[in-house]
């Protein structure tokens, strides 16, 4: 699920982002008193953006209570993104007591309005049994809706479902297909997952060099697990480490420089 922009996203069980970061937009500028003004004619979008500014601390002091109040006003006007963020706040217990059931209800409302980020999160909630009984089939239904609405996080999770057979027959070819859709949009988790398919020969010929190429793409975006896997490939003699950037590896506590010293 989602956390503030200044902190890492909470990882779902499917190596997904939790909630989509594409929502983050520039918010209304504040007056010198740091109290932006809304009029009676303010639209639900304007109210929502101001709530987002308080939620993120963007041009105004971070204030969960004000963010919740503003999201609620926009949600009362039927604005789906505001319902989604209210659900996030209930999930995280920000500005309100934590309540997974209420989070589910609000995110479901936004999802039913066709909002892709909420559709993805509803899939995560069904998959991880957050506020609702676990249901892989319903999770897949919502991931597919979100993916068709452009969510690369959902595309990655669909690939994960096919790779591990969650609610669907295991199918490495389909896993590769869906991972590729997300990876082509730059999602590091999907790049990591494609690397895993190549490293293990799942649905593709085993190819350590291609595995490295995909791990490198993910590692370049700061994905530590990809860095760990590169270190593992080097330690196991699967790739030539000449010219490879040194990566710290949490699994071994070593760096590629350490590995080079050990091999001399």
From TrEMBL:
SUPFAM superfamilies: HCP-like. Residues 1-27 form the signal peptide. Keywords: Signal. The keyword Cytoplasm does not apply. The keyword Signal applies. PROSITE patterns: PROKAR_LIPOPROTEIN. It comes from the Bacteria. This is Tetratricopeptide repeat protein. The lineage of its organism: Bacteria, Pseudomonadati, Pseudomonadota, Gammaproteobacteria, Moraxellales.
């Amino acid at each position: 699920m989602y956390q503030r922009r200044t902190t890492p996203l909470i990882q779902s069980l499917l190596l997904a982002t939790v909630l989509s970061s594409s929502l983050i937009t520039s918010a209304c500028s504040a007056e010198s008193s740091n109290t932006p003004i809304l009029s009676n004619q303010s639209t639900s979008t304007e109210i929502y953006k101001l709530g987002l500014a308080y939620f993120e601390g963007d041009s105004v002091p971070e204030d969960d209570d004000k963010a919740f109040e503003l999201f609620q006003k926009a949600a009362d006007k039927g604005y789906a993104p505001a319902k989604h963020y209210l659900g996030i706040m209930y999930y995280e217990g920000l500005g309100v007591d934590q309540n997974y059931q209420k989070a589910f209800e609000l995110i479901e409302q936004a999802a039913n309005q066709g909002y892709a980020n909420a559709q993805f999160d509803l899939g995560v909630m069904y998959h991880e049994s957050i506020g609702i009984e676990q249901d892989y089939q319903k999770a897949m239904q919502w991931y597919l809706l979100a993916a068709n609405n452009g969510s690369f996080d959902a595309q990655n999770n669909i690939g994960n479902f096919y790779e591990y057979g969650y609610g669907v027959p295991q199918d490495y070819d389909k896993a590769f297909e869906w991972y590729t859709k997300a990876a082509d949009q730059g999602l590091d988790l999907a790049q990591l997952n494609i690397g895993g398919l190549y490293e293990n020969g799942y649905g593709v010929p085993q190819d350590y060099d291609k595995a490295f190429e995909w791990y490198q793409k993910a590692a370049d975006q700061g994905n530590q697990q990809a860095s760990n896997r590169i270190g593992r490939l080097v330690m196991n003699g699967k790739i030539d480490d000449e010219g490879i950037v040194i990566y710290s590896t949490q699994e071994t506590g070593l760096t590629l420089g350490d590995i080079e010293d050990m091999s001399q």
